[in-house]
Amino acid sequence: VALVVVPLLVAFWVWNERRRRAGAARFASLGLVPNLVDRAPGRRRLVPVALLLLGLTALVVGAAKPHARLTVPRHEGVVVLAVDVSRSMNATDVKPTRLLAALDEADRFLDEIPSTYDVALVDFGSHAYLAVPPTRDRGLVRQGIADLHSGDGTAIGDAIVLAAQLGHRQRRIDGTVLPSAALVISDGAPSGGRISPLSAARKARQLGVPISTVVVGTDGGVVTAPLTGGYTEQVRVPASPGTLQLIAKASGGTFYRAPTAAALAGVYRNLATRLGHTTEDRQVADVFGAGAGVLLLAGAGLSAFWFRRLVP
Predict the structure, then answer these.
(1) Rounded to the nearest 5°, which phi and psi values hold at 286?
(2) pLDDT of the residue at 196
(3) Is residue 71 within 8 Å of residue 134, measured between CB atoms?
(4) Which of 31, 88, 99, 200 has its CA 20 to 30 A from that of 45?
């Protein structure tokens, strides 16, 4: 309601300008004006007025205590890395292999997230195992990453439930649950496990732990399998994103594709930014107040410098 004052002030300023010009015309000859005044200020007179009015507008809006959704850094949190170590992750369509590329970038990922975050490591093949419990010791997590080796099966559902439980159990000193998220890195095809991926994703959502997923690999993945008699065979293991997409959607996470090592590196950087920040509703009255002060001072200063008065 107070903003109605702004157009009223504009109307008053315009009316006053016309009245002043009409008064000046009655007491002076227009032909003598060039001899009395070097040059007319022209549109320059509008600049201080515009700044003063903008400052007043910002001041009124700030008084209403506006709120905005702002991205702010998180200072605490839990990230659970769940890495697929099944045999299909040995495919070389992502160099040097899907698994080694995922582990190499996971090591770099540790440098991107805030040092105040706890990080846990889960590996899953036929079963899901806790390789490293939540810790701020990055060296311990790196050692856990280096010790991972491939196995059989792809128990994605079991890994999701384990990761969600780890994130949900971490609490602050006051007992409140820390913000947490999990990242599942896999080529996507579930095999084995006690819990279906979709049921596990729903359980994670109930616990408040979003599961982001990364599908590593392409349709051209191939692994070599040993046969009896010393023979080998090549088995096609195309990446299967469908399950990972459902997991991310059901749990409130984000799904990513990583057909190359470079794309995988980009995924990690993006996730580090997302996990290290959150969106909060905050009052921004101080921003409007500071902006109003700057505009009012600028308008008054220019008016005083150009016209020797605060209001032109």
Answers:
(1) -65, -30
(2) 92
(3) no
(4) 31
